[in-house]
C-alpha cells in the first residue's frame, strides 16, 4: 500500500508542476497587451489540471485510510513519518504546491490590477463632455444649434 501511495504522490507532484507551468503561461497572458486570445486555452488547461489534482488527492486520502491514517495533510504527515521515501516525495510535493500557490496569488494580483485599470479607463470614457460650439457630434457633423451661433 505504501508503494501505491508513493506512486500517487509522484503523480500528484507531476500534476502540480504542470499546474505551475500553466500558471506561468497565465502570467505571460496577463501581462500581454491583449490577453483575450491567450487566456481561454490557459483556463481550459487549468480547469483540467484542477480536476486531476482533486482526483489524485481523493486517491491519496483513500490510500491513507487503507493504511489506518486520517486523510489530508495530517494523515500524510503521519504516513511520511513512517517511510523515508514517502517523506521525501511529500516534501517535494509541498514545495511544488507552495510555488504554485505563490504564482496563483501573483496572477490574482495581476488580474486585480488589470480590472482596476479597465474600470478607470471606462470611467474616463464615460465623462460627459459639455457641448461647445464647433465640436463635431458623434455622427461627424456640427450640431445645427452650434452652426447657427
Automatic annotation (TrEMBL):
<protein>
    <submittedName>
        <fullName>Flagella synthesis protein FlgN</fullName>
    </submittedName>
</protein>
<comment type="similarity">
    <text>Belongs to the FlgN family.</text>
</comment>
<dbReference type="InterPro" id="IPR007809">
    <property type="entry name" value="FlgN-like"/>
</dbReference>
<comment type="function">
    <text>Required for the efficient initiation of filament assembly.</text>
</comment>
<keyword id="KW-0969">Cilium</keyword>
<keyword id="KW-0282">Flagellum</keyword>
<keyword id="KW-1005">Bacterial flagellum biogenesis</keyword>
<dbReference type="GO" id="GO:0044781">
    <property type="term" value="P:bacterial-type flagellum organization"/>
</dbReference>
<keyword id="KW-0966">Cell projection</keyword>
<dbReference type="InterPro" id="IPR036679">
    <property type="entry name" value="FlgN-like_sf"/>
</dbReference>
<dbReference type="Pfam" id="PF05130">
    <property type="entry name" value="FlgN"/>
</dbReference>
